[in-house]
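Reply to dn_fold:

You asked what the input looked like. This is it:
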Amino acid sequence: MRWSRFGSIYDRQRTGKLAFIAVSVVAIGIFLFISNSLVKSLAAQERERMNIWAQATEKLAQADIDTSPTDVAFLLNIIAENTSIPVMIADSDFNILDYRNFRLPDKTDTLGTPVPFLTERNYSFLVSRLKRPGGDTPLAEMAGQNPHFIKVEVLAMPQYIYYEDSILLRRLSLYPYVQLIVMVILAVIIYFAVVYTKRAEQNRVWVGLSKETAHQLGTPISSLMAWSQYLEATGAEKEVTDEINKDVNRLSVIADRFSKIGSRPELQLEYLNQVVERSLQYMKGRISDKVDLRMVFPEDDYGVAVSRALFEWVMENLVKNAVDAMDGSGRIEITTGRDRDKVFIEVKDTGKGIQRKNFKTVFHPGYTTKKRGWGLGLTLVKRIIEEYHGGRIYVKESEVGRGTTFRLELPVVE
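and this is what came back:
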């Protein structure tokens, strides 16, 4: 069964897409894990540095500068090395005793040299940083609740060191999210680039095949036309030559249709109900009597810009598809109408139906449930309607075992 082969192709494509998404998610997860681990590691290092800084501050207050000048110099060096982590020392009443590395406005002294300037507003800002984790909670309680508070003893008096993450750490903490956005965008770009390249290649093959088919049909059609004229000249029965001419004309129409694939066809003004009915005249005499073909047209007719040869091909393919779905027995109902600035044609059958997951797949090359056929009919229909006529075709509704409705939409011409 041909569908088993082409069906497996689309199953593999669907599996490939899911695999691509899964690999992308795993890769993004790994990078985020590594980035978060680095950020956490740096945060731990900063906490350790601040613990050492706090111990150095406490030791410095207890050190005797006369008896241990080396130790004092070492402690001062530890304190001075902190040039990136914002830190404050305050007493239990939120009085700020010292601070560094907070971004506050500068004031220029009389010599033009910028000096730290602590205005009332900036002082309130620093105090708010102290109170922010716990509102009016005393520092003694906050020190036990918040890892950014460290309690030290300076001259037998409790003091509290508050610090924040450095600018570098804050920036790095945002890096995983930036990385996530960039990687998602990159994955989407790669996916659509691959899809676009594949479709472009399919289009080139499709157009080349159509042109070659039209070219190959040209020679036997010309030969058949010559033989038909020869038979007429030799006195062959008129019924025979008429039937031959019908088939030759039909082949000429088919060749003309294939020749229009790949080039922009010339669109002409037609009226919807008329062109649909004319398109179905050929099919009426070639489908089983067991198929009830109904046309439900409104009284008003609407203008559309179409290529008659290609549009008739569309309608024939839709009807053939419906007949095949019903195994040659059932009802086909074709309805036309207008919806705002578009006209529509609905082809409803009572056939096998389509599973919802295949609503889009049915338009892919090779999709077919028949033992014979290549599954190109609906692909042709979609290409002709959407690329050449600026319209749209889709499965409006379908239920397995009860039938399918295809809806075709075209811009209306006032």
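Residues 167-233 form the longest helix (67 residues).
Hope that clears it up.
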